[in-house]
Amino acid sequence: xxxxxxxxxxxxxxxxxxxxxxxxxxxxxxxxxxxxxxxxxxxxxxxxxxxxxxxxxxxxxxxxxxxxxxxxxxxxxxxxxxxxxxxxxxxxxxxxxxxxxxxxxxxxxxxxxxxxxxxxxxxxxxxxxxxxxxxxxxxxxxxxxxxxxxxxxxxxxxxxxxxxxxxxxxxxxxxxxxxxxxxxxxxxxxxxxxxxxxxxxxxxxxxxxxxxxxxxxxxxxxxxxxxxxxxxxxxxxxxxxxxxxxxxxxxxxxxxxxxxxxxxxxxxxxxxxxxxxxxxxxxxxxxxxxxxxxxxxxxxxxxxxxxxxxxxxxxxxxxxxxxxxxxxxxxxxxxxxxxxxxxxx
Length: 345
What we know:
13 helices, flat
């Protein structure tokens, strides 16, 4: 939880560490000057011109900010981030008037800035590693919920799995629309989880030792991210288990001809194997249908997590116990800072 560091600044502690990565990305985006309608010589000249334009723009921006021409900024604030978004996106406009490519470059750079804030500013990878190592302990705390939720999930899945319309919907829809549907389930689930995050953060705050110093807004966001990732990993595990169950179940009971009858199209066979002398075939339609049902099951499990008061209490209690040492270190850290400030003054 890097946000627990006092005087932690996005401009000085987060984006300065991401600056080398941003520089490499900007150089690769010089390829935005490439135009498939031009000759190789023209494209080479455009790329070299793009590099020259990018370097010149960087130097002029430094001079505008009253820094040496090739200086690396010690603080990466809003002006520097704006330049990272806009300058590379100008290349497709200057070299070929490619408005779509320019907009895509600007959007991609905005996403990269957000990812840098998550990965460095909130310690996203460290949170995933920490929550992953404690996943099964947290699942044990939510065993009651799983016992109540899984029978309903499997019953709903079994009823839906043998409906030809389900196979047709998930098998015949175009892949982009299929992915968009799954992402819609993910977004809805995240919104449901986000609604409960403030209450979970308050529950942990009321239990741990804060050394008389309430959590600041960035610290609360960092703690909320720990809670969110912990819950998301649980949901992903349940979703994957449901998917594997229905994929195996369907491979055993639904043969290729039956699947083709339900879908109304020829099956796309991915692989097959022999089981007790029988040929078992796994098709693309089987995996798509199974995952569609699993995605909906994951959404149902998410809602069940939110409405089950017993689960919420047990989950927060388990997470609080696991994080107690973190806040104990924070209390000692704040005490040492206060003593150092007193000695300095």
